[in-house]
Amino acid sequence: MKTIIYYFSGTGNSLVIARDLALELGKAEVKPLAKAINQEKILPDAERIGLVYPVYAGGPPLIVSEFAKKLELNKNQYLFLVTNYGVMQGAAASRLTRLLRRRQINPKSVFGITMPDNYTPLYESPSEQKQEAIFKKEKAKIKKIVQTLNSTKPEKMEMSFFLARWLLWEPIYGIFSLKLPEKDKKFWLTEKCNGCGICEKVCPVANIKMENQKPSWQHKCQQCFACFHWCPQEAVQSGKKTIKRKRYRNPEVNLESMIEAACLI
Ligand SMILES: Cc1cc2nc3c(=O)[nH]c(=O)nc-3n(C[C@H](O)[C@H](O)[C@H](O)COP(=O)(O)O)c2cc1C
Q1: Ligand 1 center to residue 15 CA distance, Å?
Q2: Which of 131, 151, 175 is the last residue of a domain?
Q3: The CATH number of the domain where 58 resides is what?
Q4: Which residue, by CA, sits nearest to atom 19 of ligand 1?
Q5: This prediction's pTM
Q6: What's the number of domains the chain is made of?
Q7: Average pLDDT, whole number, for the chain?
Q8: How close is the Cα of 118 to the center of ligand 1, in Å?
Q9: Residues lining ligand 1, judged by CB closer than 6 Å?
Q10: pLDDT in tens, 173-206
């Protein structure tokens, strides 16, 4: 069975999940969602379609919802979602499922995977030792997901507890997503910035323009933090606390693959 897996990723976690799934499934293609979204309608030519994305404040990245609004599937095409998060999924799968169902698209399975947390303004990412343990569990989980997908009844819904979603995560996501594209106003630069332009290239939604050899954020941000984590000088900061905190990049992903996934290329 042919599979297409679309992903959105700031620090490579979703890309690694998409790649691992593709390898384990066989006959699978991995595509960056940020590029596919440029089409008016998204009509994947495969029997099975996967969508892999990170959780932001208990919800899906805005671009993932936009993608879902453009996705066109027929009744025989099988759709599955794979969320990944530092701590919990919140309403990231339920919100997207609701949106898709309103468009008569029914995701048959939803999975959740824990990955290293990359929201550095709030907390430090896990140590390398803890990351290793997380990656080991991720590889094991991929095998389980593929077993489910290849089973005779491939239906599984791994979602957060109903009350937690409605009482906690829906309101938190509602607040987070208010004026979200403008949240890039919190980014600032230290004198370490040498104008290399990697932040511009790595931004998946072309939200950065180099002006006088310095990045200028264009207020259509997704909050993926790619510019922040991939800056080789660690010159990009967000708020007051990040200056002392380490950056995180999935060790299986190189800069080239992140740049290739960005919509500019
Ligand atoms: C803006 C932002 C908000 C986040 N919110 C949550 C959250 O609500 N719950 C959680 O468990 N992880 C949260 N995370 C962590 C990411 O979901 C997690 O690190 C994910 O694996 C990143 O995937 P990526 O490398 O593909 O971008 C957040 C990260 C960012 C950048």
Answers
A1: 13
A2: 175
A3: 3.40.50.360
A4: 117
A5: 0.98
A6: 2
A7: 97
A8: 6
A9: 9-14, 54-58, 84-88, 90, 115-119, 223-225
A10: 999 999 999 999 999 999 999 999 999 999 999 9
pLDDT given at position 241:
96
For residue 205, the enclosing domain spans 180-261
Closest CA relative to residue 92, chosen from 111, 108, 77 = 111
Exposed e or buried b per residue across 31-40, where buried means at least 16 C-beta atoms within 10 angstroms of its C-beta:
ebbbbbbeee
Q: Model confidence over 78-95: pLDDT tens digits?
A: 999 999 999 999 999 999
**Which ligand 1 atom is nearest residue 88's CA?**
11
pLDDT digits (tens, 9 = 90+) for 101-158: 999 999 999 999 999 999 999 999 999 999 999 999 999 999 999 999 999 999 999 9
Instruction: Pick the last residue of a domain from 145, 175, 205.
Output: 175
Report CA(117)–ligand 1 centroid distance (Å).
Answer: 6
In this structure, the residue with its CA closest to atom 30 of ligand 1 is 119
For residue 215, which phi and psi values (nearest 5 degrees)?
-70, 140
